[in-house]
TrEMBL record, chain A:
Keywords: Acyltransferase, Amino-acid biosynthesis, Cytoplasm, Methionine biosynthesis, Transferase. This is Homoserine O-succinyltransferase. Transfers a succinyl group from succinyl-CoA to L-homoserine, forming succinyl-L-homoserine. The lineage of its organism: Bacteria, Pseudomonadati, Pseudomonadota, Gammaproteobacteria, Oceanospirillales. GO terms for biological process: homoserine metabolic process; methionine biosynthetic process. Belongs to the AB hydrolase superfamily. MetX family. One of its GO terms (cellular component) is cytoplasm. It catalyses: L-homoserine + succinyl-CoA = O-succinyl-L-homoserine + CoA. GO terms for molecular function: homoserine O-acetyltransferase activity; homoserine O-succinyltransferase activity. The record marks 324 as: Important for acyl-CoA specificity. Its EC number is 2.3.1.46.
From TrEMBL, chain B:
It comes from the Bacteria. CDD domains: AdoMet_MTases. Pfam families: MetW (PF07021). This is Methionine biosynthesis protein MetW. The lineage of its organism: Bacteria, Pseudomonadati, Pseudomonadota, Gammaproteobacteria, Oceanospirillales.
Amino acid sequence: MPDVIPADSVGIVTPQIAQFDTPLALSCGQTLSSYQLIYETYGTLNQSASNAILICHALSGDHHAAGYHAMSDTKTGWWDTAIGPGKAIDTDKFFVIALNNLGGCCGSTGPTSINPETGQRWEASFPIVTVEDWVESQARLADLLGIQTFAAIVGGSLGGMQVLEWSIRFPTRLKSAVIVASAPKLSTQNIAFNEVARQSIRRDPDFFDGNYIDNNSVPTNGLGLARMLGHITYLSDDAMGAKFGRQMRHDSYQYNYGIEFEVESYLRYQGEAFTKRFDANTYMLMTKALDYFDPASQTNGDLSAVLSRAQCEFLLVSFTTDWRFSPERSEEIVNALVKAGKQVSYAKIEAAEGHDAFLFPIPRYMAVLNTFLTRVANSLTTEVK
Amino acid sequence: MRSDLEMIDEWVQPNIRVLDLACGPGELLHHLIQNKQVKGYGLEIGPDDLNTCIEKGIPVLEQNIDEGLQNFDDQSFDLVLMTHALQQFRRPDLLIDEMLRIGKECIITFPNFGHWRSRLHLALKGRMPVSDFLPYNWYDTPNIHFFTFQDFERLCREKDIKILRWAAVDGQLKDHWWIRSMPNLFSETAIFHISR
């Protein structure tokens, strides 16, 4: 609800929709005959189309990365702290594109869309898409927008995996890759967390094997539970402790299963709020995309071998209290890049927020991002001259 | 009269893989990348130094050297560098072993505590020397090991490490004939090029 748009905001933005009618062959073996992607852009594309940055979103992100949709909006886009005029991802210098990935539930083709071949909603029949499929579809969006080479592709968490895939799949189409709080593949523990999230959705009687819309139902309990679990893993023990401690709802224990501690109330609220904006099938699909990602499997588990295809320069960032995608996971990528002789820098940022830190405007994090991208921007101007 | 950087530059072959431990703001690495087209990486933990390196486009990795260098493969670099930092780590002897495991050759520079002014300071005043070059008090210094040109030579001998060449310079990092003749007494900074 901004009375005035802040000077460092991209302001009011309007999402756009791109329609694709060239079939897309997916990793799972199925083909999408046509699909659409919803996206937003901030800043201005220069004449040589060399100043574009692609933002890849994480598990529950979307195309609305910065600014407002209307003056009545209570919230900005999900990465407004980093994207805007004079911000770390400076829209005075760059043309920034953010999209909702295929399989999403915010306007791109996904389980809640109509399958043109049946005239029915896809729901459970929507094919599972992978990071590779997303990158392929993002490249088609880039073609449509006239962008041959990105100045940078940036993403955190699952978004970072897409950036990594870009560097391998389309080595000549990006000058730099910024990978934040990510990993070259999920750990066993991560897959286990995802499975608990999926099971909580699938075992919800309102799930109807994924065809809940057809049954006028929403698996709110399952999806809410999945989000509660996820939320715990995105925060650090310290961050939760600092935020809630053992703060209680009442003056004394009630000795029942109602809300005793504030953290319980917070998690329930987070879970419930999520079910109002997110689709359960999309959530399940996104967790599968995370599980399947493992580019080193193409080279017998040798990450540096597969990364030897990359040509861009890399910036990796991790956060000290992130245990879902710990610094060691980012360092696996860093070590593989060093081994492959690639241009890479790495910063391990002191932060209390856990995995969520990648969405916070932590000063040192923003400074590193800004310094790196400023140099990328300067190298573009030198080339033009 | 040449400076320490010029000397190191002269010793470094072009187009090699270089790892610079505790690279600071990346002055040497930047020079070697520009002039010798080396493929270089720096390790650093100071946020400002890291940012300076990123600003200059020098590949820099945030890594605490005292926590180990196991992430680097045996003989994966042609040269491992460490300028003015060896005295700051917990176990310089083990660190040198690690450097020679990772690199085929190493260049190490360190402040020579055997310099006559340090000796005089300790002998006459009976207190730990504080100078422009080592401007710290004993309690707040990051330099936790003090050793001399000769101490380093002796360690190399004990460990069967080859000294390929050495140089010795003054506080302005320049060399002079009298320093070369009695490096343990006259050098403020010692420079060693070593290998297994």
